[in-house]
Amino acid sequence: xxxxxxxxxxxxxxxxxxxxxxxxxxxxxxxxxxxxxxxxxxxxxxxxxxxxxxxxxxxxxxxxxxxxxxxxxxxxxxxxxxxxxxxxxxxxxxxxxxxxxxxxxxxxxxxxxxxxxxxxxxxxxxxxxxxxxxxxxxxxxxxxxxxxxxxxxxxxxxxxxxxxxxxxxxxxxxxxxxxxxxxxxxxxxxxxxxxxxxxxxxxxxxxxxxxxxxxxxxxxxxxxxxxxxxxxxxxxxxxxxxxxxxxxxxxxxxxxxxxxxxxxxxxxxxxxxxxxxxxxxxxxxxxxxxxxxxxxxxxxxxxxxxxxxxx
Amino acid sequence: xxxxxxxxxxxxxxxxxxxxxxxxxxxxxxxxxxxxxxxxxxxxxxxxxxxxxxxxxxxxxxxxxxxxxxxxxxxxxxxxxxxxxxxxxxxxxxxxxxxxxxxxxxxxxxxxxxxxxxxxxxxxxxxxxxxxxxxxxxxxxxxxxxxxxxxxxxxxxxxxxxxxxxxxxxxxxxxxxxxxxxxxxxxxxxxxxxxxxxxxxxxxxxxxxxxxxxxxxxxxxxxxxxxxxxxxxxxxxxxxxxxxxxxxxxxxxxxxxxxxxxxxxxxxxxxxxxxxxxxxxxxxxxxx
Lengths: 311, 288
Hints:
The complex is a heterodimer of chains A (311) and B (288).
Chain A lengths: L2 H13 L8 H26 L7 H17 L4 H23 L4 H21 L1 H4 L5 E2 L8 H28 L1 H11 L1 H6 L4 H27 L1 E2 L1 H4 L3 H13 L4 H21 L4 H15 L20
Antiparallel strand pairs in A: 1-2
Chain B lengths: L1 H30 L6 H18 L4 H27 L4 H23 L14 E4 L2 E4 H23 L1 H11 L1 H6 L4 H26 L7 H15 L4 H22 L4 H15 L12
Helix pairs in contact in B: 1-5, 1-8, 1-9, 1-10, 2-3, 2-4, 2-8, 2-9, 3-8, 5-6, 5-8, 6-8, 9-10, 9-11, 10-11
């Protein structure tokens, strides 16, 4: 275990102490922070390690949210529903990944982008199962008070973040991570030396989808109401990319820091300039790309940490 | 008769789709940038036509003449000042940059025009032609003719003019073009400007037919994606072929299985094409 990974786990452990200090608002922010960190870490598997610019995060977030929502409505307990949607997302993404990841560069970006549209339209039109455009109401998981509820969902999301981080650390140190690195650097060459790149890419895509799907499930249970335009919002696909760019592409600690910083900025902008918040977000993205293309983690390179692994 | 009507509708719509996609395809083919601001440019063009007609009584045909240079300058400056700085960066960076630009423009439009749907209603209305049982509205017909004219104009520009040849040269082989003395940075800016101008003109034409709102920009962008992938990148004929195919599939699909599934169908078609034939209908292999 490297120092960077230890720092990541330490950071996540610090987040867990949040309920000691804050009220319901802090818990809400904390839950969202954990959710964003899960997105960023998941996206980093396929976008950072394997170098495929995926825009499919929103598709699997929405899929997980709807899968869990429907299961909860059928009377399945929350934990089973979330694990169920995690498994479903993994299988679905791995199968889709085997097909879609044959594409490279722009073509993959567009295919993953249109995956979101296809999922949204399918959910929109399957009115019997999903409620279509009217959305889906999800029964309350527990009857306890507001603060207890908030704490429960915070820890649920935090636990998922911890699992995601541990999996990402294991992946990055394993043969799979090494293979993904090879694929990013030169896919043709890694195929030549006997790496089964289709298998590796499918697993990576599956892993990058399953935790997002589970996060979607917890989100659905948390907010009690989802509709297609909410959970299949293309912004959910773009945000993890911005976070990863902000923190430093490819470094798990970097992207988690990026997620927290991004949430902070978003919250400040949202609270102060509600009418122009997406414009301010746009300005932020452009500044970031022009002036800090290697992310926050590159600011301290050579001083404390190694440089962000790759850009 | 229904079949003929569906066919005619697809023909009319297909030419408009081609017009939407052609600027997008040019930028993608030449600059290798997926220009996510394209949809918002189209909506801005539509607002230009609407505003000109509403406030100054200028007919959309003249607005077309105004829109082209205005959007060209806008696109040229954007490329020169911003995009050229990151043009050599990986796909993700340019894509995300245009996404940021799109957020700004779209937010600005929602702020100034509000998210209400508006409609440009010509006074007096142009009516429609009906031949046997087939009905075609005149405004759609004129918009289609203008779209075809714009497409033809771009084709001539790329074929006959010196700038056009330089754009094609950069698209074919950037490094060789540099060696032949082509100023690549300015060609990039001109190509992006042309793409923006075409988007603006397409927007003016859309204003005649569809309701106008900042929220429709992503739908236009989606159409541009699908048309480009279906037809093949960077070529005028490819965009026309893609537009017609998309309109045909949508028309037949919505007649047979219901209009609710038309969008799904077009995106499924997109994914199938990406996987099976990524160079598009008219594209050459290895040239994507």
